[in-house]
């Protein structure tokens, strides 16, 4: 410390943490000036003042170095901080080993994410204060070393240092990342005991930790108990709801947030957009996009990607592309979202176009990009492109990525190259459960039940316990190959091992049993599924109804219909079609008509089922009338429609109507008649004593009549004593 600027020799004085270099007025001291410059973000001017001070032979004290280091922390100016550290080391042990300076250095290196230097300096501290602990624990959290962060927190308590409102949020953040609900509750107790529950930062961190531990009710209790709520608290609560699948509650939170006058950030709107996408809530998502524009929020990589994800998920890909184009900076996530959106919507050429644009912008494909491309190749059976994608993975060391390996296996399986799929599986060193399941899915896709069973038992020998997905694939492939007993045994086995069947398990069994002719077992399985509280989906309902139809079990069919009505299950086209078909084939045409009338937006399958029902019940007039009405409302009939209506004409002997329909099928609707259509009309003509016309019609069949038509006409010839034609047909 110096008494004046012109002193020939600096006076000796005890160590102090401040320096008054310019004597005339304390407010003009170097320390005061440097502190002021650092606080105002003028770090380089402060360093310049330090240089000027040194040129005048003034020795800075620990206070000045401390303020400069604090300025570097505020600006995250690592390089400048390292220069100051070098000056400190040159100044000698007295300053370099000063605890105040060392603590500031720990905080600098921790805040600038230089773990080696921070940890080394921290270990040398004589007294590890709460500030240095806060810096180190915060560093571990940012680096993802959450276990180390919590170990540090425990050691801090063990050493008698009480955590403050800077340490606790980081400890809670680590708990959330590791989903340690017990540790989180312990910290919550500490927060209440030490009186930190009034701190908005600690409260927000508690909400976040409970949310990430899937304890949304506890998160809400903390949120409701907060005296003051900042944007972070609201964002954490919205994110907790989205994470727990409570998307409607997440949407309501944003409305409440706006009503309270809390400003929305890009994070807020990103969570809201995720909830909207999950619900398919187009209007709400559009509102979020509008809010982003009204609030002047920049389409950065977070918000821009969230909007693209929303539009892609609800099928508005043109809007997604517009947002993508308007983003000033596009990271690989934004590119991947657009590519994935096009792949999932089946617009494969556009997906490939975006991939080419991505490469032209010198963006590297990552594992997510390659997963989308390989999925595209599998869906389009584009083996050539799939192999090119696989080669790219190998060249860029992405083939060891488990998601990429799984997608590669799936691609080869869909392209019927199971040997290549097996080779990819065997070349992957670290195989997780997902990879094993990918190969099981490949075997199921190709109906290779023996290989699937062998792999299923092999994974258990390799200490990889199968999950419900594994069981689902094996049960599926067994049922596809007609191995019903084996599938039932495996289902019993999974329950004995406490692997809970999910909706897919039940649906696979019900549909598989029905398709294999085990209709009664399928119905019993459906009833068992309801007893355990699994809500059926469209496929399981349709499969159960088809079993009722095949066995003419009207009582069970009515029971399923009652369940659908009581539980407000959507009367979708497949379900409505199955109900109409079931009632018609069980002899209840009026009930079939009642179901038909209840369907709001009637589509072709429902019409076909009703026309078929009328035809089978001999109600030809109603069948023809409904067919005409279907045409009038603009629904284009298909091959099945004509089979049903021609069958009705055949039953009623309506020759002219049948011939007119067959002719209109070609001339009006551009459909090519198949053998079933010709069979109906030939039978119609034969029964109406028009054997010559029936024979003429046979000669118009380009690919020739089949045995069924010939035998039918031959029987009519014998019945009508048309011996000459009968002999010809016999030959």
From TrEMBL:
Keywords: Repeat. One of its GO terms (molecular function) is RNA binding. It comes from the Eukaryota. PPR repeats lie at residues 26-60, 129-163, 230-264, 331-365, 432-466, 467-501, 502-536, 603-637, 638-673. One of its GO terms (biological process) is RNA modification. InterPro entries: PPR_At4g14850-like_plant, PPR_rpt, TPR-like_helical_dom_sf. The keyword Phosphoprotein does not apply. This is Chlororespiratory reduction 21. It comes from Erodium gruinum. The lineage of its organism: Eukaryota, Viridiplantae, Streptophyta, Embryophyta, Tracheophyta. The gene is crr21.
């Amino acid at each position: 410390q110096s008494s004046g600027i012109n002193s020939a020799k600096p006076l000796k004085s005890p160590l102090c943490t401040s320096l008054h270099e310019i004597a005339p007025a304390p407010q003009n001291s170097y320390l005061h000036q440097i502190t002021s410059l650092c606080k105002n973000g003028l770090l380089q001017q402060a360093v310049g003042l330090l240089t000027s001070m040194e040129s005048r032979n003034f020795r800075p004290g620990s206070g000045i170095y401390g303020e400069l280091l604090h300025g570097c922390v505020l600006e995250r100016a690592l390089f400048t901080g390292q220069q100051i550290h070098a000056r400190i080391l040159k100044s000698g042990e007295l300053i370099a080993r000063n605890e105040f300076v060392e603590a500031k250095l720990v905080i600098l290196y921790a805040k600038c994410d230089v773990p080696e230097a921070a940890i080394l300096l921290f270990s040398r501290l004589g007294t590890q204060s709460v500030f240095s602990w806060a810096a180190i624990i915060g560093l571990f959290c940012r680096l993802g070393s959450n276990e180390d962060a919590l170990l540090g927190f425990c050691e801090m308590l063990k050493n008698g240092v009480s955590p403050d409102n800077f340490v606790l949020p980081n400890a809670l953040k680590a708990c959330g990342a590791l989903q340690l609900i017990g540790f989180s509750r312990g910290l919550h107790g500490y927060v209440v005991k030490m009186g930190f529950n009034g701190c908005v930062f600690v409260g927000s961190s508690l909400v976040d930790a409970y949310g990430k531990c899937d304890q949304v009710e506890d998160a809400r209790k903390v949120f409701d108990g907060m005296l003051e709520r900042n944007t972070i608290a609201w964002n954490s609560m919205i994110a907790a709801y989205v994470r727990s699948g409570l998307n409607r509650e997440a949407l309501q939170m944003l409305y409440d947030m706006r009503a309270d006058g809390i400003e929305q950030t890009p994070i807020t709107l990103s969570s809201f957009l995720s909830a909207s996408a999950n619900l398919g809530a187009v209007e709400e998502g559009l509102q979020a996009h509008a809010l982003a524009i009204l609030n002047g929020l920049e389409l950065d990589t977070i918000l821009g990607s969230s909007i693209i994800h929303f539009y892609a998920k609800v099928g508005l890909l043109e809007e997604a592309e517009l947002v993508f184009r308007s983003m000033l900076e596009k990271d690989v996530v934004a590119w991947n979202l657009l590519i994935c959106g096009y792949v999932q919507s089946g617009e494969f050429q556009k997906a490939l176009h975006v991939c080419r644009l991505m490469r032209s912008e010198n963006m590297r494909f990552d594992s997510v990009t390659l997963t989308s491309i390989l999925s595209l190749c599998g869906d389009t059976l584009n083996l050539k492109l799939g192999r090119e994608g696989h080669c790219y993975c190998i060249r860029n060391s992405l083939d060891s990525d488990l998601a990429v390996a799984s997608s590669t296996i799936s691609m080869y399986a869909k392209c019927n190259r199971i040997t290549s799929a097996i080779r990819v599986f065997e070349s992957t060193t670290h195989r997780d459960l997902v990879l094993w399941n990918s190969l099981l899915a490949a075997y199921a896709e190709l109906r290779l039940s023996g290989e699937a069973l062998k792999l299923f038992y092999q994974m258990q020998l390799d200490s990889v316990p199968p999950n419900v997905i594994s069981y689902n694939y094996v049960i599926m492939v067994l049922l596809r190959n007609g191995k019903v007993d084996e599938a039932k045994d495996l289902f019993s086995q999974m329950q004995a091992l406490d692997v809970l069947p999910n909706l897919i398990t039940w649906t696979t069994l019900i549909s598989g049993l029905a398709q294999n002719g085990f209709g009664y077992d399928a119905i019993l399985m459906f009833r068992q599924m309801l007893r355990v509280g699994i809500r059926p989906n469209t496929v399981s309902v349709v499969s159960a109804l088809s079993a009722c139809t095949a066995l003419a079990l009207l009582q069970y069919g009515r029971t399923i219909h009652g369940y659908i009505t009581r539980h407000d299950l959507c009367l979708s086209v497949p379900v409505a079609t199955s109900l109409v078909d079931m009632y018609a084939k069980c002899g209840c045409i009026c009930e079939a008509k009642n179901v038909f009338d209840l369907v709001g937006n009637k589509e072709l399958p429902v019409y076909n089922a009703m026309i078929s029902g009328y035809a089978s019940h001999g109600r030809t007039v109603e069948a023809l009338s409904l067919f005409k009405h279907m045409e009038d409302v603009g629904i284009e009939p298909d091959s099945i429609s004509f089979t049903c209506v021609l069958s009705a004409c055949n039953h009623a002997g309506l020759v002219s109507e049948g011939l007119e329909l067959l002719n209109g099928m070609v001339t009006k609707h551009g459909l090519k008649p198949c053998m079933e259509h010709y069979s109906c009309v030939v039978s119609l003509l034969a029964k109406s004593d028009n054997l010559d016309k029936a024979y003429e019609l046979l000669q118009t069949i380009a690919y020739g009549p089949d045995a069924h038509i010939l035998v039918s006409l031959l029987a009519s010839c014998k019945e009508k004593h048309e011996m000459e034609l009968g002999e010809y047909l016999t030959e």
